[in-house]
Amino acid sequence: MKHTKVKDLLNSTTTLQEVNAKGWVRTFRNNQFIALNDGSTINNIQCVVDFENTPEETLKRITTGASVSVFGTLVESKGAGQKYEIQVTKLEILGDSDAEKFPMQPKKHSLEFLRENAHLRVRTNAFGAIMRVRSVLSYAVHSYFQQKGFVYVNTPIITGADAEGAGEMFQVTSLPLDNLPKNEEGNIDFKKDFFGKHTNLTVSGQLEGETFAMALGQIYTFGPTFRAENSNTSRHLAEFWMIEPEVAFNDLDDNMDLAEDFIQYVIKYALDNCKDDLAFLEGRLLEEEKSKPQAERSEMALLEKLNFVLENNFKRVSYTEAIDILRDSTPNKKKKFQYLINEWGADLQSEHERFLVEKHFKCPVILYDYPANIKAFYMRLNDNTEPGRETVRAMDILFPGIGEIVGGSEREERYDVLVEKMEKLGIDKEELYWYLDTRRFGSATHAGFGLGFERLVLFVTGMTNIRDVIPFPRTPGSAEF
Ligand code: ATP
Ligand code: MG
Ligand code: MG
Ligand code: MG
């Protein structure tokens, strides 16, 4: 007899004589009631054990975390909260779990404790829910682009390109560590460390993605990205997943439209397909909120917040307008805040971004037309900007509670302008000859963006630390798995 998933048993339209369920024991009450979960849903199925006819030895082995196989009848449940339960006729212990030692006993664990047990935390209700939502969102990403005829491209993980020029790369070496090539000063020569060539783990698939967009029209990447972030923020990981569409003949406005439509689609998809998990996560958050002072509680519950994003257009604001708003605002008495935004041309700090989104506009914001010299070399220079106040056709999408979720731009399609910019910044033209070829042969306006998948999962699940929405977080000091 094949076993049936708990989700399907709970969604059954009829009682059934003979069923088999397999899963892990969440709790075992009164020597009689097993709450059984198999990961297919946040909900457990109650299994009622005939304790009078079950050997004492077996009852003792029904402990939290143990895997069991139960056979019995699916009957209507008299208890509140669930339609069906299983009246157990036969029970097999598949794998014991030492109750004394099993770290995931059902109680409130701190998120820090759970992070240290990333391989076991997925057995808790919250992490089961988060990981299912993450999986559904991944599917939604592909579904969106595939329906629109985008081609999925796998850009290289090991690459010589540093798209962002931010110097946050993990070096890759093919050589034994004690035999790395040295330069004349005796320092490691990273230029020759991968079979004689310099390489690193990718920080973005954009540059390679552009070469494919200039042949296939619309492409997207969705893969792991690496940044040697030596910071310990709740928004940065050293290994994260990025979604990067790139579209030929799109300009900055098209790019904003695409990003907004895409984000709304995937959020709607999660709302439609993760109802139970999102309801659970919302309940969890509401509990958490209760322990906060009134002033710090969020104005909207999770589902309301997600629906709000679907129902409202993102506010589009130029960098220059944003600076004016910030300059005129006095969000608190901190001098720092005032100082940083006093000058046109300064990069916005996350506190500024959050102020704009959470206090001023109170909705997702797309900031565009940034000063050229705080953005990457490949962004399209705006025509007709004041000398000394050159801007590029860049955009960042800022989300409440998250800050930057998307960074994107229209790309500089003019060969001469791009080369001039690279020369000014000291970027090696020979190394990027393949990138320049896109401008040499049939160049055209094109645009794209990068969306950090974990920041999206953070928003949708209502979690606040990025380490809690990726199966195995990689941050400074945590990579033991
Ligand atoms: P931030 O300002 O938050 O450091 P960034 O501007 O350096 O981000 P981009 O190079 O624009 O990031 O990358 C595109 C997107 O990738 C970002 O908008 C963000 O969603 C995501 N992202 C960037 N760095 C990280 C990271 N270390 N961990 C998780 N997501 C990230
Ligand atoms: Mg960064
Ligand atoms: Mg940024
Ligand atoms: Mg960015």
From TrEMBL:
Chief location of this protein within or outside the cell: cytoplasm
Limits of the Aminoacyl-transfer RNA synthetases class-II family profile domain: 131-471
InterPro entries per the UniProt record, alphabetical: Aa-tRNA-synt_II, aa-tRNA-synth_II, aa-tRNA-synth_II/BPL/LPL, Asn-tRNA-ligase, Asp/Asn-tRNA-synth_IIb, NA-bd_OB-fold, NA-bd_OB_tRNA
Record-linked SUPFAM superfamilies: Class II aaRS and biotin synthetases, Nucleic acid-binding proteins
Reaction(s) catalysed by this chain's protein: tRNA(Asn) + L-asparagine + ATP = L-asparaginyl-tRNA(Asn) + AMP + diphosphate + H(+)
EC main group: ligase
Signal peptide: none
Subcellular location: Cytoplasm
Keywords noted in UniProt: Aminoacyl-tRNA synthetase, ATP-binding, Cytoplasm, Ligase, Nucleotide-binding, Protein biosynthesis
A GO MF label: asparagine-tRNA ligase activity
EC number in record: 6.1.1.22
Family from the record: Belongs to the class-II aminoacyl-tRNA synthetase family.
Quaternary data: Homodimer.
The protein's name in its UniProt record: Asparagine--tRNA ligase
